[in-house]
Amino acid sequence: MPAIVTLVLMKQHWENVYETKASNQVSWYRPHLETSLALIERATSGDLSASLIDVGGGASTLVDDLIERGYRDITILDISQAALALARNRLGKAAESVHWLHADVTEVSLPARSIAVWHDRAVFHFLTAPQMRQAYVNAVRQAVKPGGHVIVSTFGPEGPSKCSGLDVMRYDADSLHAEFGAHFRLVESSKELHQTPFGTMQQFLYCHCIVQ
């Protein structure tokens, strides 16, 4: 299937998901992303002015917790306009302090070396085509400052092979780091068992890298 057709279908898929389901009724929902928050706090070392981007963060509660902790330079990128609207409505006036970006991460052009911390929980594993993964990595390399941090979470080796009706990739720390290459130094990795709103368990892998 041509890449442009795949992208159109992906956009339609995610708009449909967030237009028809409550944000707490999707399998990846957590009330608080504790592991992500801990990694971001370590990466920023208390610098609340650090520029952060949450890729695929549309309806996630991560932005709520980042605002509560005092972070002041937050960008939320999502392929779904509906997902972004859910978060903006939930936050109310606090949403005015966030930069909301409706875009596909494999097509977006972000300002060069503008991001201190790049965070992604559960986007990269949906990129099953090599050219899409390469486009994602290119976006990271363009946007993240040298010495900046990249925190990516995917399904682990024992995670599901499908999610939201779509095929996904599964990774261990070595295979995920290999997708990014020598410009990224792996700092730490961990696995987490996530309980979905439906009571099932999913294995997630977290990798934290520094851009060299």
Summed up:
The chain is an alpha/beta fold and 212 residues long.
How is this structure best described in words?
The protein has six helices and nine strands. It has 212 residues and is α/β, with parallel strands linked by helices. Strands 3-2-1-4-5-9-8 form a seven-stranded mixed sheet, with helices on both faces. A two-stranded antiparallel ribbon has the order 6-7. The longest helix is centred in the N-terminal third of the chain and has 18 residues, at 3-20. The N and C termini lie far apart (35 Å). The mean pLDDT is 95.
Determine the mean pLDDT.
Answer: 95
- Outline the low-pLDDT stretches: none
Q: In total, how many domains does the architecture comprise?
A: 1
Shape, principal axes of CA atoms: globular
CATH superfamily: Vaccinia Virus protein VP39
Oligomeric state as shown? single chain
Number of strands: 9
> What's the SSE pattern?
HHEHEHEEHEEEHEE
Percent helix among the residues? Answer: 25-40%
What fraction strand? Answer: 25-35%
